[in-house]
Amino acid sequence: ITTNLFFLSSKMFSAVEISTPSEVVAVNGTDVKLSCTFKSTHPVSDQSLIVKWNYRPPNSQSETSVLYFQESSHPPNEGLFKNRVAWSGSAAKRDASITLLHVSPTFNGTYTCQVTNRPDFQGRGGEIVLKVVQKAIVSEIGMLAAAVGGSCAVILVILGIIMGVKFYKKRQEDMDIEEHSMGKTDLY
To answer: What is the distance between the alpha carbons of residues 92 and 33, in angstroms, rounded to a whole number?
Structure first.
């Protein structure tokens, strides 16, 4: 009887399956969506869904709450993520994503998405490593392009001059031979 009861209860409740990318790269100062989708064996609604997003800085074990969702979005009232996180998910679409606003290098770290859909229980959380990079400065790219382009142009000009001089010399030799040949025919 115990085995049958366990079998029945395991059919009634199961773990939520969570899918996230393993890494996201964002440019400093932009908004970035951290995608988290899930599968549940039970119908999903705003009332049955609970989502927790946590943040762990690089080389640290301490976690900070980023956002909590239960019937509505509950962002933090203080700390790093105050006014810097928005709910982007949809219970109907089985989406528990968030958007981080105006990210900076202080946002680098690991983000964990945890989802519970009652009566299913929380499965293994999805982890995303966020890397915030600086914008490439246009002047640096421009300087590099100008250096490479300028070098190529100089090489082409030098090759053009060398080819032009060789062509001119060859033509002069041909004209000298022609004049010399014509000069011999005039002597006879």
So the answer is: 18
- What's the burial of 110, exposed, middle or buried (CB within 10 Å: 0-12/13-18/19+)? middle
Q: How far apart are CA 183 and CA 188, in angstroms?
A: 9
135 φψ region: left (φ > 0), alpha (ψ -120 to 50), beta (else) = beta
Sign of CA dihedral 92, 65, 36, 112: negative
Q: Which tens digits make up the pLDDT trace of 74-103?
A: 999 999 999 999 999 999 999 999 999 999
Domain 12-133 class in CATH: mainly beta
Max Cα distance, the chain (Å): 130
State how far the Cα of 175 lies from the Cα of 4, in Å rounded to an integer: 108
Residue among 19, 34, 12, 31 at smallest CA distance from 129: 34
Q: Is the pTM of this model over 0.70?
A: no
